[in-house]
Amino acid sequence: MEHRITTPITSEITSKLSAGDYCYITGYIYVARDAAHKRMDEALNKGEELPIPIENETIYYMGPSPAREGRPIGSAGPTTASRMDKYAPRLLDLGLKAMIGKGKRTKEVIDAVVRNKAVYFAAVGGAGALLSKCIKSSEVICYDDLGAEAIRKLYVEDFPVIVVVDSEGDNLYETAIKEFARL
């Protein structure tokens, strides 16, 4: 099934998505990778507030390349999501509703997705130049000293993703393997 989604993403939206669905996201999303997740976790451990709103938000695991002239961002392909797995359950419990990356997630992350009626999307790895065409603006929000790993706020239009883990815990990577084995 195909869906057009506008951020912020809520439980009402995630409840309509199933593993394997194609989605096109329009609206604001945040970019954060390993170093930014570590800093956010450290801030929470100190009792500090996060530098970005988290409730009903989407985080894209991506480190952009420098923008070419006239473009808001360079190549913008996903990075491996499992590197954020030790931080993701906490953010999900704080209200994060969607994550975009590539690759498998741990049981703890999948449990947190289900517990919080969230969703994990995959973006196509190796297609960063094409994905960047869906990004209409990019602004560093915080942790500028991290360079490409700074937290950014992007405005995206029809950003293509696939539901990998839905709010019920159905996992496309598992069902696809079973389907392939059956064939």
UniProtKB/TrEMBL annotation:
SUPFAM superfamilies: FumA C-terminal domain-like. One of its GO terms (molecular function) is hydro-lyase activity. Keywords: Lyase. Residues 7-175 form the Fe-S hydro-lyase tartrate dehydratase beta-type catalytic domain. The keyword Iron does not apply. Belongs to the class-I fumarase family. This is Fumarate hydratase. The lineage of its organism: Bacteria, Bacillati, Bacillota, Clostridia, Lachnospirales.
